[in-house]
Amino acid sequence: MIFPKRALVVAVVFLAAGCQRQAKISAEQAPLSYEGADYRTAAEKIVLGKRLTIVLDCTGCHGANLQGKNMADKPEDGAMYSPNITLKVPTYSDSELDRLIRHGVPKDGREFWFMQVESYQFLSDADFAALTAYLRSLRPAGKPLPAFKFNRVEYKDVEQGLMGDAQAQIRKYRDRQPVDLGPQHAWGRYIVKTTCTACHNNALQGWKNFTPDLDIAGTYSQTELTRLLTTGEGKTKKDLGTMSGMGRDHFSHLTQREREAVVDYILARANR
Predict the structure, then answer these.
(1) Distance from C-alpha of 203 to C-alpha of 192, rounded to nearest angstrom
(2) Which of 155, 198, 218, 260 meets the CB 3.0–4.6 Å disulfide criterion with 116?
(3) Within the chain, what is the greatest distance between any pair of CA atoms?
(4) Which own/partner pairs from 222-231 qualify as long-range (CB within 8 Å, at least 24 positions apart)?
(5) C-alpha gyration radius of the chain
(6) Dist CA 117 CA 171 (whole Å)
């Protein structure tokens, strides 16, 4: 027979153990997301979504107002237009937007190219919901732009097999991801998978004649790499071209904790 006092002690012990197990399970199952993904109001949700359009480089391809632009670097290479998102989003349901952005399937079923859905496939539900909320908050503006088609420079990458359509890219990035360096670097790896891979390839091994393997980050100190991801300033050369622009215009919008997580992961990978 268990006396009431002893029964109370046993119950407390089992309850504590159960809570510890539940906390452990919850921590293990907690989805990785950007800071702010614990939003409680519609306004907070939209704030995160707006920041994500910058961090994820949506504004880099579609313009600061997301009304689309000619993405060609040089006029002689030919025009290459991104669509006006403010006009496109109202024509898509939430599920159709998900299939487009995270799965690379437009609602008309056409073959899809160029947008980095291979990186966006890793976005958490909370982050994607925030992105969608912000896009839906935009008032339709501007005008429709010509349909997307590759210009001469980008088409060479397609011909040489350096770039596939959305489905090929998604499979490649899903099957070989940046190295897993353990739970202490899981958050940094998540942010890297949704951002850095867009330019530095699926496992951060770089693209031929475009971007280097991110092992190069091993030549940077933590302070130097943080500065690059904040101001765009390189270690030995202030202007690193595209990377400086990404640091200055996009990664500068990471929170301090997000940036620290990215730097820690990138340096751990380089020095593994």
Answers:
(1) 10
(2) 198
(3) 90
(4) 222/263, 222/264, 222/267, 225/263, 225/266, 225/267, 226/259, 226/260, 226/263, 229/254, 229/259, 229/262, 229/263, 230/259
(5) 22
(6) 11
**Angstrom distance (rounded) from CA 15 to CA 35:** 31
Confidence at residue 214, expressed as pLDDT on a 0 to 100 scale? 97
Residue ranges for the chain with pLDDT beneath 50: 1-29
Question: How many residues are present in the chain?
Answer: 272
51 is written with which tokens?
């920041």
Q: Burial-class residue 39 by CB neighbours within 10 Å (0-12, 13-18, 19+).
A: middle
* Residue 8 main-chain phi, psi, to 5 deg: -65, -45
Give the pLDDT score at 225: 97
C-alpha 102/C-alpha 27 separation (Å) is 25
In this prediction, residue 106 carries a pLDDT of 95
Distance CA 181, CA 265 (A): 8
Residue carrying the six token digits 């891979």? 197
Residue 81 three-state SS: strand
End-to-end, the C-alpha distance of the chain in Å comes to 58
Cα–Cα distance, 232 to 241 (Å, whole number): 9
- Residues with Cβ within 8 Å of 31's Cβ and at least 6 positions away in sequence, in order, are 124, 125, 126
- The structural domains of the chain, ordered by start, are 42-172 (1.10.760), 180-270 (1.10.760.10)
The pLDDT value recorded for residue 271 is 94
The pLDDT of residue 267 is 98
Report pLDDT for 30.
60
- Per the rule left: phi > 0, alpha: psi between -120 and 50, beta: everything else, 213 is beta
Residue 45 CA to residue 47 CA, distance in Å, equals 5
